[in-house]
Specification:
Elements lengths: L1 E5 L5 H13 L4 E4 L13 H11 L4 E4 L2 E2 L5 H14 L6 E4 L6 H4 L8 H18 L5 E4 L4 E5 L12 E7 L2 H8 L3 E6 L9 H14 L6 E6 L5 H13 L4 E4 L9 H9 L6
Parallel strand pairs: 1-2, 1-11, 2-3, 4-5, 5-8, 8-9, 9-10, 10-11
Antiparallel strand pairs: 6-7
Length: 274
């Protein structure tokens, strides 16, 4: 199982310091987060942070938890992703989802939909356009919301395409099928996305997605916070790995307790506290 960490708080400069510290401490991935106007929180553009992290690191996987594609123009995302992909030597992944409507970029501006079905259709269009963009060949596309003609994106991604991880709601069939068709699945509970799935449920997700993919490998990605006690943390990590999880992302969104300095200290301890 690989371990990543989300820079859930801190200044832009502190976020890059966290990326460097994560690589030095043996983490496998560093993730920004995608928000525009979330309460009074300090928020920074993930593409800018990832571009800076790309040139300050050499090994670690880079991404954001998670890119809200329905409110982004997919042709712009294609160019932004290609830029970070090449700056990093092919270390970018794209975790994507419908987006959180408590972000003012959805709920407090005109022209953006908070309707789940409409955002899902926009997400499907965006994923299809990204697939075509990675080919490096001219393409046209007509979807539910987006129509493009004779677009071409060069250069191609460093490794031919950029891996895409998709949030899947367990168990909403359409949502899960969308996620199962990509490189990775970030399963969330349908009733409450903040309530983590149990190890047994994660095994069910692993089995269902594997069947849908005909046994083709995929990433099973889970967010959360491991216990602070080293023994309990190792036991929890082992349980997750046994359930089929391939990526554990340390994402601490409890802003009543998490601080930039505290998060940096946690990163320096390494993926599993010793």
């Amino acid at each position: 199982m690989k371990f990543g960490v989300t820079a859930s708080c801190g200044s832009a400069a502190q976020s890059i310091e966290m990326a460097v510290a994560a690589e030095e401490a043996g983490w496998d991935g560093f993730f920004a987060w995608d928000g525009i106007s979330v309460g009074a929180m300090d928020t920074f553009d993930p593409w800018t942070l990832l571009g800076a992290a790309a040139v300050r690191t050499r090994r670690i996987t880079l991404g954001a938890m998670v890119f809200s594609l329905p409110r982004r123009k997919p042709w712009e995302v294609a160019r932004q992703a290609l830029t970070v992909d090449h700056l990093s030597g092919g270390r970018l992944v794209l975790p994507v989802g419908l987006g959180a409507v408590d972000d003012g970029a959805y709920s407090r501006v005109s022209g953006e939909s908070v309707d789940v079905k409409e955002r899902a259709a926009l997400l499907d269009d965006s994923l299809a356009i990204l697939d075509l963009a990675w080919t490096g060949e001219p393409f046209s596309f007509e979807g539910t919301h987006h129509r493009v003609s004779d677009l071409v994106f060069q250069p191609r991604p460093v490794h031919g395409r950029i891996p895409v991880w998709v949030i899947g709601s367990w168990f909403a069939p359409r949502s899960m099928r969308r996620a199962a068709g990509r490189d990775g699945v970030l399963p969330i509970r349908r009733e409450d996305g903040f309530d983590p799935l149990s190890p047994d449920q994660l095994r069910e997700v692993r089995a269902w997605v594997s069947e849908q993919r005909g046994g083709e490998p995929f990433e099973l990605v889970v967010e959360g916070v491991l216990p602070s006690d080293p023994v309990q943390a190792r036991d929890r990590a082992a349980t997750l790995e046994d359930a089929g999880v391939t990526w554990w992302i340390h994402s601490d969104w409890d802003f009543s307790t998490v601080t930039p300095d505290g998060l940096l200290d946690r990163i320096r301890l390494g993926p599993v506290p010793r």
